[in-house]
Amino acid sequence: MVVQPPEWSSKYGEGQVPLGFQGETKEQGLVVPRCPQPRVLSHPAVTCFVTHCRWNSILKTVCSGVPLIAYPQWTNQPTNAKLAQDAFKIGVRLRSIQELDECIEDTLSRPWSEEFRNNAAALKEVA
């Protein structure tokens, strides 16, 4: 997990890792303050990418050839998510965080998952 510090401070702690999270998950992964997104996405262990769908994230995903789970929040993100799902056909749309497990399954293990991987690989070749 990569945590990018928020651009502004908040009294509610948005964008911050919850207290105790790193200790509870230290055997499951590594939390770092920042790292290059294209390098992470290009790693062979990455099989899908959960993204908020800002345009740069979509481009980096396409260039890396990785299927995605789109979780748009505002402005152009819903449009970008629709493009990724319906036009590029490289992933699924997450409508609520409670659907995450199902969306991961849809992206990695369903009959249409291979189409997502093939489309993502094809886009990577032309990107």
Description:
The protein has helices at 21-25, 37-41, 55-64, 77-87, 100-108, 113-126, and strands spanning 49-51, 68-70, 91-93. Helix 3 packs across helix 6. The chain has 127 residues and is mainly α. The two termini are 26 Å apart. Helices cover 43% and strands 7% of the residues. Strands 1-2-3 form a three-stranded parallel sheet, sandwiched between helices. The longest helix is centred in the last third of the chain and has 14 residues, at 113-126. The protein is globular, with a radius of gyration of 15 Å. The chain is built from six helices and three strands, in the order ααβαβαβαα.
Unreliable runs? none
Q: How many E-type strands?
A: 3
Give the N-to-C terminal Cα separation.
Answer: 26 Å
Helix content: 40-55%
SS content category: mainly alpha
Main sheet: strand order: 1-2-3
| C-alpha-based Rg, rounded | 15 Å
Largest beta-sheet details: 3 strands, parallel
What form results from the Cα inertia axes? Answer: globular
Encode the helix/strand succession as letters.
HHEHEHEHH
**Number of H/I helices:** 6
Strand coverage percent: 5-15%
Mean pLDDT: 89
